[in-house]
């Protein structure tokens, strides 16, 4: 699913109006109906409502929503926040229609016009939408502050009032903090940025049948991967397949005290369909790995405590494996850095790089040029910062991410809520699955195992990253459903991996 910017959304509305064709006021009615369909499923008709409307089309939506909810017998009051003399045409139209059916419309011009909003009420926020062009001030600001202070449940129409859809807000901006956002047709880029979590609440999109051909043609670097889109990426298994079909992966993981990282990664790799798996661990990890993961072959490093790259027995060179995954628990010992330096020039196929392997790259940036094209890097934000430079806000971070992926022709999986997968073409795919329960030690090692398995099965690297991140998050969601987020462990996530 594409994410469009505000100018494109405006053009999309116009294209729908022209080509469907549909009158603007009827398009607004369709949007209001879609909101109401969502709303009535969640809040019973006995819920007392306060609907705050601005003077633009977001406010017009609010007025239409009020009329449609009145038809469904919700007890409600409408508050028009009068911050300017000008009202949009469709606002005026809906204002007239609403006045025909209710006297419960108040006008908020001064702070004392703002009503109390007790906890049993639902507030619908239709003050400002995607047309926001400056920070909220005056009575708009006061109304937003009152909504945020109130214990009422807050639902924002299209976007929280005061939040820019596709550019950074200033830290001092006053923005509605909703419990829910119901957005029309497409998510806004702002919803996917970690710094905005307070300003989106639980967000959803509702279909208002905007012009499909316009959406298909609109150029954008930003995508949101819906579950149905992710599932389409899954390769079907050939009935005549054998273990060679699914590749032979080499995982370089673990150091003294962190052999668990190798175990988790190896288990996740095996649970993600790899044909054969060899794990190279420091000598001390050999008995652990052979016991904990009997399905994997294990080659002990000659170094007892860290990976140095050399092994006792003459073995296959890393370049001869289908893919290599490196990083979980490896530490930053000089021997390990030497191994990485020797390894990179020998590899040509896409590989997976995680954790301290990324930190070693950050400290030795000349190595970045040697990454095989299409490799997948899986940093969390701190690790990514070590690979690049600090950023001022989430938008700058996205720019940096796109730039980095393009420059080094790699796929970067920036981990976090709505993990962002940046492609060598400079696109970003945001993930839909996962929850805060995944913020626990070892889940990153699991992701490395998953991605290594997908590369071994010869998935295209971008598809591997998008699918792998989706499946990993989904496993986390399944664990959260069964045992809650707090008790979640990385082992649970491995066990919950499902590929169907
Ligand atoms: N255009 C369409 O056909 C549709 C638009 N829809 C709604 O229209 C909204 C966008 O409507 P508008 O473009 O009218 O914009 P808004 O309703 O977001 O803003 C209203 C007006 O307020 C002004 N404004 C901007 N920032 C302000 C601030 N901080 N304080 C005070 N005034 C400010 C702007 O000049 C703008 O014209 C969407 O979010 C959505 O809710 C939906 O009805 C779907 C269809
Ligand atoms: K709003």
TrEMBL record:
<feature type="binding site">
    <location>
        <begin position="129"/>
        <end position="135"/>
    </location>
    <ligand>
        <name>(6S)-NADPHX</name>
    </ligand>
</feature>
<feature type="domain" description="YjeF C-terminal">
    <location>
        <begin position="226"/>
        <end position="500"/>
    </location>
</feature>
<keyword id="KW-0630">Potassium</keyword>
<dbReference type="InterPro" id="IPR000631">
    <property type="entry name" value="CARKD"/>
</dbReference>
<feature type="binding site">
    <location>
        <position position="380"/>
    </location>
    <ligand>
        <name>(6S)-NADPHX</name>
    </ligand>
</feature>
<keyword id="KW-0520">NAD</keyword>
<feature type="binding site">
    <location>
        <position position="125"/>
    </location>
    <ligand>
        <name>K(+)</name>
    </ligand>
</feature>
<dbReference type="InterPro" id="IPR017953">
    <property type="entry name" value="Carbohydrate_kinase_pred_CS"/>
</dbReference>
<feature type="binding site">
    <location>
        <position position="261"/>
    </location>
    <ligand>
        <name>(6S)-NADPHX</name>
    </ligand>
</feature>
<feature type="binding site">
    <location>
        <begin position="57"/>
        <end position="61"/>
    </location>
    <ligand>
        <name>(6S)-NADPHX</name>
    </ligand>
</feature>
<keyword id="KW-0547">Nucleotide-binding</keyword>
<comment type="subunit">
    <text>Homotetramer.</text>
</comment>
<comment type="similarity">
    <text>Belongs to the NnrE/AIBP family.</text>
</comment>
<dbReference type="Pfam" id="PF01256">
    <property type="entry name" value="Carb_kinase"/>
</dbReference>
<keyword id="KW-0067">ATP-binding</keyword>
<dbReference type="InterPro" id="IPR030677">
    <property type="entry name" value="Nnr"/>
</dbReference>
<keyword id="KW-0479">Metal-binding</keyword>
<comment type="function">
    <text>Catalyzes the epimerization of the S- and R-forms of NAD(P)HX, a damaged form of NAD(P)H that is a result of enzymatic or heat-dependent hydration. This is a prerequisite for the S-specific NAD(P)H-hydrate dehydratase to allow the repair of both epimers of NAD(P)HX.</text>
</comment>
<feature type="binding site">
    <location>
        <position position="444"/>
    </location>
    <ligand>
        <name>AMP</name>
    </ligand>
</feature>
<dbReference type="GO" id="GO:0005524">
    <property type="term" value="F:ATP binding"/>
</dbReference>
<keyword id="KW-0456">Lyase</keyword>
<feature type="binding site">
    <location>
        <position position="445"/>
    </location>
    <ligand>
        <name>(6S)-NADPHX</name>
    </ligand>
</feature>
<dbReference type="InterPro" id="IPR004443">
    <property type="entry name" value="YjeF_N_dom"/>
</dbReference>
<dbReference type="GO" id="GO:0052856">
    <property type="term" value="F:NAD(P)HX epimerase activity"/>
</dbReference>
<feature type="binding site">
    <location>
        <position position="158"/>
    </location>
    <ligand>
        <name>(6S)-NADPHX</name>
    </ligand>
</feature>
<feature type="binding site">
    <location>
        <position position="329"/>
    </location>
    <ligand>
        <name>(6S)-NADPHX</name>
    </ligand>
</feature>
<dbReference type="GO" id="GO:0046496">
    <property type="term" value="P:nicotinamide nucleotide metabolic process"/>
</dbReference>
<dbReference type="InterPro" id="IPR029056">
    <property type="entry name" value="Ribokinase-like"/>
</dbReference>
<feature type="binding site">
    <location>
        <position position="58"/>
    </location>
    <ligand>
        <name>K(+)</name>
    </ligand>
</feature>
<feature type="binding site">
    <location>
        <begin position="415"/>
        <end position="419"/>
    </location>
    <ligand>
        <name>AMP</name>
    </ligand>
</feature>
<feature type="domain" description="YjeF N-terminal">
    <location>
        <begin position="9"/>
        <end position="216"/>
    </location>
</feature>
<dbReference type="Pfam" id="PF03853">
    <property type="entry name" value="YjeF_N"/>
</dbReference>
<feature type="binding site">
    <location>
        <position position="161"/>
    </location>
    <ligand>
        <name>K(+)</name>
    </ligand>
</feature>
<keyword id="KW-0521">NADP</keyword>
<comment type="function">
    <text>Catalyzes the dehydration of the S-form of NAD(P)HX at the expense of ADP, which is converted to AMP. Together with NAD(P)HX epimerase, which catalyzes the epimerization of the S- and R-forms, the enzyme allows the repair of both epimers of NAD(P)HX, a damaged form of NAD(P)H that is a result of enzymatic or heat-dependent hydration.</text>
</comment>
<protein>
    <recommendedName>
        <fullName>Bifunctional NAD(P)H-hydrate repair enzyme</fullName>
        <ecNumber>4.2.1.136</ecNumber>
        <ecNumber>5.1.99.6</ecNumber>
    </recommendedName>
</protein>
<keyword id="KW-0413">Isomerase</keyword>
<dbReference type="GO" id="GO:0052855">
    <property type="term" value="F:ADP-dependent NAD(P)H-hydrate dehydratase activity"/>
</dbReference>
<dbReference type="GO" id="GO:0110051">
    <property type="term" value="P:metabolite repair"/>
</dbReference>
<keyword id="KW-0511">Multifunctional enzyme</keyword>
<dbReference type="InterPro" id="IPR036652">
    <property type="entry name" value="YjeF_N_dom_sf"/>
</dbReference>
<comment type="similarity">
    <text>In the C-terminal section; belongs to the NnrD/CARKD family.</text>
</comment>
